[in-house]
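Hi V.,

You were right to ask for the full record rather than a summary. Here it is.
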Amino acid sequence: MNITTFVLGGTLALALAGCAAFPPNNTATMPLTPEGAPQLSQNDAISLASWALKDPATTAGNPARAARALAAEDWLAGQTILYGNYGTYSPGGELSWQQFRQQARAAIGVAPSAPSQELVNRLLAVNSALKAGQPEAAKAQLASPIFTLGPDKTLAALTNLPRLPGRDWAFSELNRNVDRSSGSSSGMFN
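Predicted structure:
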């Protein structure tokens, strides 16, 4: 067994073990704007999560951006459309998104079994409140029991997200499937 096989096998085993923590069909519907459009389209969510969660420096000191990016990530992790758009999306791809979801939730103290819809709604509301200069309204959203750290510590975690290594695997799987379905190999999410 070479080191690559060992590492990939270990990563897959961790992902499989992690998927037992919450149901894989823990999905959310993207909340709508007052005009009736989704707050984030699938393409916007992919672009935002890929860019903002690639490097902790992108969200450092900007909890509003972190909240929006994490809402996009959690929403994407439960979307069968993400997999369906690319035909034969591999089980490894689904596992990669579940692992990424677990890491993102752990970074801000969200229970693995928390309903995605509540998490997405609250994180988008935190984003809106912070952008409007209403930190107390943002903290009120973070007072839900799904945030195990409490409002102040969760806001601090959003201000200083750690590196989320699952992001790289999730987006490389998405790239691989985009390449397979389109014939291109742009590596657009790296």
